[in-house]
Amino acid sequence: MKLVLFGPPGAGKGTFSGQIKKILPDIPHISTGDIFRENLKKQTELGLKAKKYMDAGELVPDEVVIDMVRDRLSKDDVKQHGFLLDGFPRTIEQTKALDEITSIDALILLELDREIIKKRILGRFSCPECGEIYNKYTLPPKDAIGEDKWKCDKCGAGIEFAQRSDDTEEALEKRLDVYEKNAEPVIAHYKSKNLIRTVDSTDTLKMSEEEIKSAIGYKR
Ligand code: ADP
Ligand code: ZN
Q1: Residue 165's pLDDT band (boundaries 50, 70, 90)?
Q2: Domain at 80, CATH number
Q3: Burial call 97-114: b when 16+ CB within 10 Å, e when fewer
């Protein structure tokens, strides 16, 4: 299958990719964000080109992303198993470019209420001792020992909630506004082709394999 996974930050694209992988184990999961981060780590030419945009939280220029995706989609694994594109297309130019490269079976649109997104992203923290991940609003440790203080369920260490400095409410609102502005024409494009499949992503982990299959339009 040739799928595009689409949705706001915090919608759980990573989680849903994992669930799709259980049904389609061989499908290449192609995340443009991951590819950029890998290239940044290895200090490749592509990584250096992308760095300043990523650091500023801006989109990498279309031609850079489009060339990279075109190259990736020409590989043998894609010819054999299709793809699960994650993080691309993000703009109308990227959408048109993808149309020229290939046709997709569906765009899976993960939908989530803005207030829930904010809780998910702004509430997350982890145990400094063992790394266990929690959420102040949706998944706090069981044993509260004070205001915003708990004992870690896993290792028993004391944990205090602290907002990550790059996760302020203001910065998040801005990211969500940017997402919505870019998303609108992309969604309209695929809607006109009847290729949108909407998934309520409040609780995708509760979805059965059958529900995931029907959500992505997998037959057989
Ligand atoms: P986010 O952290 O916003 O969920 P990703 O992990 O998907 O984003 O990508 C990290 C960064 O890589 C983005 O902020 C952006 O600079 C760049 N990037 C990823 N995909 C694209 C794309 N399709 N177009 C432009 N830039 C992209
Ligand atoms: Zn712990």
Answers
A1: low
A2: 3.40.50.300
A3: bbeeeeebebbbbbebee
Ligand 1 pocket member 92 (CB < 6 A): no
Residue 155 within any structural domain of the chain: no
For atom 9 of ligand 1, the residue with the nearest CA is 33
Catalytic residue list contains 220: no
**Distance in Å, CA 35 to ligand 1 centroid:** 10
The CA R_g of the chain, rounded to the nearest whole Å, is: 19
User: What does the pLDDT read at residue 220?
Assistant: 76
Where in the sequence is the domain holding 76, given as residue range(s)?
A: 2-113+174-216
112 Cβ closer than 6 Å to some ligand 1 atom: no
Find out whether the beta carbon of 9 lies less than 6 Å from any atom of ligand 1.
yes
- Which listed residue (52, 114, 164, 191) is catalytic? 164
pTM attached to this predicted model: 0.87
pLDDT band at 164 (very low <50, low <70, confident <90, very high): low
Give the pLDDT of residue 166. 65
Domain annotation covers residue 38:
yes
- Residue 104 is assigned to a structural domain of this protein: yes
Could you give the strand order of the β-sheet that contains 149-151, starting from the edge strand earlier in sequence? 143-146, 149-151, 158-160
